[in-house]
Design goal:
Oligomer: single chain
Number of helices: 15
Distance between the termini: 64 Å
Strand content: under 5%
Number of strands: 0
Radius of gyration: 23 Å
Order of helices and strands: HHHHHHHHHHHHHHH
Helix content: 55-70%
């Protein structure tokens, strides 16, 4: 490592002020601080709090918390591939197929997003933040394995420019960048990310007789459109080739078609524990999202206007991207509420809105995406009213 450090120090003057590559200084600095601890320190003499946790380490903690979802997603892509073929396969073979489809999406996401960030840093002459280290992983995990790579690149460019750079860069955006990328694809190329069959077969392969890989959300939309029973559709899905495909336990563990990182509630909860223990993510938001969804699910059970509303409330917690959204999207420290009371309100409303969107609008079966983006916009307003309420209570106590 000393050799690498010395080599970096040797070429550093070329990137500093007056050097021949001065305009690329912030790109150089980003790579240097990613490898080594920054040498810069605070210059003023005010009160200081020294902590080993910086932005880079926080971002790496979030990435580590997503690894269970990534690894399981790769396995599940391979599993769905061999299930569709009606063939047996080893764990290594399934992981191999998964890596073949998933890793290129991850590479394209990072390469495209960082390319945009480097371009803006060079033009605007500002430091490169570590925010995209997380966003670059989130984008692939909320997409199906069959998504064309050029669409991944296009959505990433759109999200970074429109949802982030247009607002001033990292820490200034009001919308979750990864969800903005997914929303762009959802409305621009709905046939590629519609909630229908998401699996990889390979060249010339055919599915087994009767194969139907529609996700639970797609089945819910079908039930509403055709006025059929959703539970019956879920129970008969996979009949003859994958029994119990949409049983509650199967959906909790994630052995079903879906986006790469969203199918397994268990893997998401493991990530939630990591975020909560390290203090990086708010457990209050995660819990309140689940409580809000469960509460609204019970309300829908009581109203029961369509068969989707009859779906047992706890099923809403394990279908679609509910768990993934609650753990990794809703807890985004930039776009979420910051007050403690606001976090409860913010998360609860995400859960409520998710179920409402799902059962009343079959055109948008993945309600968690739109619910989080909607509440991103309202998060500052929630904090505003919470802070004002706290001020009024303190003034009242002071006047007594």
């Amino acid at each position: 490592m000393k050799f690498l450090r010395d080599s970096i120090h040797k070429i550093k003057p070329n990137f500093e002020k007056g050097g021949k590559w001065e305009k690329f200084y912030y790109i150089f600095e980003a790579h240097e601080t990613l490898i080594f601890q920054p040498e810069t320190v605070t210059k003023n003499k005010g009160v200081q709090i020294r902590d080993a946790v910086d932005m880079k380490r926080m971002m790496m903690t979030v990435i580590i918390s997503m690894l269970p979802c990534l690894l399981f997603g790769m396995y599940n892509v391979g599993l769905q591939h061999y299930v569709a073929l009606g063939a047996e396969a080893s764990l290594l073979e399934m992981m191999g197929i998964g890596a073949l489809k998933v890793l290129p999406i991850v590479v394209v996401s990072y390469a495209t997003g960082l390319g945009v960030e480097f371009t803006f840093a060079t033009i605007r002459r500002h430091p490169i933040n570590e925010g995209f280290l997380v966003t670059g992983m989130l984008i692939p995990l909320v997409l199906p394995a069959t998504i064309p790579l050029w669409e991944v690149a296009l959505a990433t460019v759109f999200a970074v420019i429109i949802a982030k750079e247009a607002f001033g860069g990292t820490g200034m955006n009001i919308l979750n960048v990864a969800l903005t990328a997914r929303a762009f694809l959802y409305f621009a190329y709905p046939s590629d990310i519609s909630g229908e069959v998401w699996y990889y077969l390979g060249e010339g392969a055919e599915t087994v007789a009767g194969f139907s890989g529609a996700t639970p959300l797609a089945l819910g939309a079908e039930a509403v459109a055709n006025n059929t029973n959703m539970m019956e559709l879920m129970q008969t899905a996979g009949h003859g080739w994958s029994e119990g495909l949409y049983s509650f336990s199967n959906m909790f563990f994630g052995f079903m078609p879906g986006s790469i990182g969203e199918t397994s509630t268990l893997m998401c909860l493991i990530g939630a524990v990591i975020l909560a223990v390290t203090g990086v993510g708010s457990w209050k938001i995660v819990l309140s999202v689940f409580v809000g969804a469960l509460t609204m699910g019970l309300v829908m059970n009581g109203l029961a206007v369509n068969s989707y509303m009859e779906l047992p409330a706890h099923y809403h917690l394990v279908i679609g991207g509910m768990a993934f959204g609650a753990v990794f999207m809703a807890t985004d420290p930039v776009t979420a509420s910051h007050t403690e009371t606001g976090k409860w309100i913010y998360g609860f409303m995400i859960g409520v809105m998710t179920v409402i969107i799902r059962v009343f609008n079959p055109a948008y079966p993945e309600g968690i995406m739109l619910a989080i983006l909607l509440m991103n916009v309202f998060a500052p307003l929630i904090d505003y009213f919470v802070v004002n309420a706290n001020k009024k209570r303190r003034l009242q106590r002071a006047s007594v």
